[in-house]
Amino acid sequence: ARAFSVPLQRPADCGAHRYFDSSRLACAPCGAHQRQSAGGSSCVCEPGYRMVFSNGGFSVTCEKCPENMSGVTQDGWNCISCPKGLTSEGNCKCPNNEILVERSMDGILLNEALCIRCNGSEQSFSASDASGSRCVRCEKTFIQVSKSCDCNTPNILTGGLCFLAHEGLPPKGIASVRFAQLGITLTSAWFLKNLQSSAFACWLHSNLTACQALGNMCVMNMNSLSSSSTDACGLFQYIFVSTARVGIVHSIPYWRHNLPWLYYGDQPGLASQVLEKNHFPTTFTFKGTDKDVKLQFIAASFDAAGNFLKWQSLEGGILQLCPDTQTKLNAAYDFGTTYQQSCKISVSKILLDFANPVFYDLFLEYNGGNGQQDLWAVPVLNLNLQYNEKFVNQGSNMNNWLLTRRFFLVDALSGKENDLRQPPRVIRIASKITISIRLVSRTQRGTIYPPLVTVAYTDVLIQNPETQTVMVSFTVSYEMNQSEAQIQTDIALGVLGGLAVLWSLLKTAGWKRRTGSSIIDLQTFFKFLLFYAGDLANVFFIITVGTGIYWLVFFKAQQFVSVLLPLPSQEEDFVTYVACAFSLKTLQFLHLLVSQLTVDIFFIDWERPKGKVLKAVEGEGVVKSTVAPVSIWRTYFIANEWNEIQTVRKINPLFQVLAVLFFLEVLGFSNLALMDASSSLTRSSESYVAPWSRILRFGVSAALWVAIAILQVIFFAVIYERFVEDKISQFVDLCCVSNVSISL
């Protein structure tokens, strides 16, 4: 058999003197005096050689430059004299603030390259651009500070900006970023370049983008709030405290002019006030217009440099890293629909799709009256909060939480150590995002508390991006205070449990009376416990069925939202009740089985002998007449009929199971157990399917089982036993006709 395999080669595997031939998907050698290009897919001449012919790939011809013209022009086609030296690539170089000129105004190549100094005087204020090919106006901070394009001492040059050295400047920032999960602290190239300049520009000039960039670096450093640190968050807090006089935005005390809103404040207990003191000023329904059943989330997005990008609606999967259809992604914001999405994503795909981080300030849009659309700020709980002495964003105690505002999905920027053009050493990914919607207690009009976004980040050390994967998830959950429902369940359990005790005592007393004993001994106590186990199992069954039907009816049938389904963590008591009912009922079954196996059944034939039979007396040689005995086959026949009616029921078990499965799977009643507001029995294959609710699944199944069982009992009692056959009555009639009694 012929093999269709080829070796795997990448451009990085080719080395300095080979290039990657895309037509062969393999490395190929370069010609004489040639080396691999920067992209790796062609060859270029070595320093000191000019191109004579080039057709791409290896089709390059190089020629050595003469000794008096050892430099090569920027385009690589000509030799030129370089009076101020050569670069490592063999091109001419010029000092700072000078531009390289290789051709005259009409395009004629010069024999000797010129380095023309940009005029930095007051009339021009020009300096060379980053490429060194043209003169442009120098940065305005240079002009403001030194009246020139130079930033000489004692002025401070940082991040390409010039600042006056005077008292009151923010302290020198720490350009390190800590990745706590990996135990790594590295010096970020992005922080090293922009941290100090952003802090100075924000403090001295109230530069909007600089303030936003400083806030973004604080978010990349996981909102650390250490009083002894001068990291990005420390510099932000320094400016925040020092600018109290400039005023606040929209009457929000935590939002200063010119600064981004990063924190809700560091007062203990503030989180519970933010999340529970005020209600969201609109109501939601399950059956109404789109605005009544949709959560209108909108986010202000910024890039890492602090530039405002745009307002973005979350519909369309902005925060969902897992790919899916548009319909399913938008279902995340249908009110009342519990949304869960999780998948594994390749690190290489993350680096490709999220090369530059985007930061989000999340709001919930609502109608504020008079046609004005207003926004409600959505708080963020960062589970990776670092360096904080007072707050721990873990657990359910809101008083220990520090709420923030801004977050990102992927940070592949702060983990770059030496060069921003190189891939990062570490990336940070929002691996778990949860939007929690909580219903106000005892509401009848669908009033909710402000939503909460909980974000958990994962630090990934880059080793082999092609094989590394990260598990990410996105969840929208709905919850309400279940304490009142739990109290009602406990009351019902207590009352019915007490009645079960009385009923078990009566059954125990009846058993003692039948045994003819009046002494309460250990056997009596165990008998009571066995009776009580069966009765308590019935109590748990009644409680669980009632609970399931209650949530099924009141959740699915409501128009204005007044109840929400328990979360999976809140269903633990319900699951415990079901387990108790099953265990206790199993114990009752074993007790019943043992009782049936050990019981003595007496069949008494009251039929008197009729007639006489002749019987020879052995040894005497005579024949005598005796009374004819009653045939034992009469008793055998009754016992056989008794045995046959042991499995007679009021319902047909096979029909019961098939009917329940028919209603659940064929007619679609199982869709009623989904954690969404829809009461439809059919779902489109293109629509999002919410996760199952264990309470609703039990409620739907139990309701169908009980309903079909009741219908069968009615059918057997009213129709079948009356017009077809009643085996129990027939057996009683048989015993009466046969004159046979049964005693246990």
Automatic annotation (TrEMBL):
Any one of the GO CC terms: MKS complex
One BP annotation, GO: cilium assembly
Transmembrane segments: 529-554, 654-675, 695-720
SUPFAM superfamilies: Growth factor receptor domain
Keyword field: Membrane, Transmembrane, Transmembrane helix
Taxonomy, superkingdom: Eukaryota
Cited InterPro entries: Growth_fac_rcpt_cys_sf, Meckelin
Name of this chain's protein: MKS3 protein
Organism of provenance: Drymodes brunneopygia
Lineage: Eukaryota, Metazoa, Chordata, Craniata, Vertebrata
Encoding gene, per UniProt annotation: Tmem67
